[in-house]
Amino acid sequence: MCTNRKQRSPLLSIHTRIQDESLCAEISDTGPGIPDELRFRIFEPFFSNKSHQYGGNGLGLTRAQEIVNSHAGTLDLDLHYHQGARFIVRLPIHPASSL
Length: 99
What we know:
Elements: E1 12-19, E2 22-29, H1 60-70, E3 74-77, E4 85-92
Antiparallel strand pairs: 1-2, 2-4, 3-4
């Protein structure tokens, strides 16, 4: 049932596509976004903008980036997206073979 509320819950969207022999996944939300002054710090280990009452130790994005990097991919924050936050994951379809 749809209710008419003043405040809506943030929506999470995931879109995938193939681009330049990579799988691209865009993960976006309609939440408050990441303040411009914090955008370049979010991947730093132990950095968190959450208050202590909500937990979090500042390792989530750092660990996610490490996992993606270990698969020869990239995880980036879309700096041009301002309707929430959007992260872009790129993973090669054919990873370089190790000899």
